[in-house]
Amino acid sequence: MHLINQLRERLEKPLPGISAQKKMMNSKMKDRDPSLYFKAVEGAKKACVMLLLFQKKTTWYTALMQRPETEYPHSKQISFPGGGLEAEDADLEAGAKRETEEEFGIPGKEIETIGRLSNLYIPISGYLVHPFVGYLKKAPKYIPDEKEVSEIIEVKLQDLLNPALRKKTNIETFGGFTLKDIPYFDLNNKIVWGATAMMLSEFVEVVETLDSNF
Asked: Is 183 inside a domain boundary?
């Protein structure tokens, strides 16, 4: 619990925000107009995601998901559990827990929210994403929604903090376009890039300020 208590306290303080997120931004976007990711259009749709933390023995993990191949712009990409805010959600936190329960099968009542990361606007889909950090007292047992999730990827926090696993590559996107020299996290031999990588980048900078062992 030392890590969780430290994180809870740290997440109440000012966050790295843009300076950390930009480190994993598409280099052309960064040079041309990085503000696209930080200035949501008026009336932007709200979305919420959950960065889960849990232990297996003494090792800390988080969990990502790979989306199935669809006609959706984020087809096959790796993301946190999450999605758009719905009318039934009492607030953004409730939406993040509901989406996690729907996609991962983890009951929302088992997730203890310990804080939030900085918001991030995604121009291609028009969503303003609100990231939450949640804690599970025991390792999760997944019941993934096959329509939303093709694979659940458990990632060690040690790997997130390893600078050797932050690389660049060319990526073929939705619609057949190729993006060059895109920064990404190489996690379990998966390419984690885009908005998810940008949010992870901020989380990494936050964790690096703590004195916990992983």
From this structure: no
How open is the CA angle 50-117-11, to the nearest 5 degrees? 110
Structure tokens at 145: 């929604």
The domain in which residue 30 lies consists of 2-161+194-207
Which has the closest alpha carbon to 25: 173, 174, 168?
168
Number of structural domains, the chain?
1
The domain that holds 26 is classified in CATH as 3.90.79.10
Q: Tens digit of pLDDT per residue, the chain (214 long)?
A: 799 999 999 999 999 998 999 999 876 655 556 566 666 667 789 999 999 999 999 999 999 999 887 666 556 789 999 999 999 999 999 999 999 999 999 999 999 999 999 999 888 788 899 999 999 999 999 999 999 999 999 999 999 999 999 999 998 876 677 888 999 999 999 999 999 999 999 999 999 999 866 6
Classify residue 173: in a domain, yes or no. Answer: no
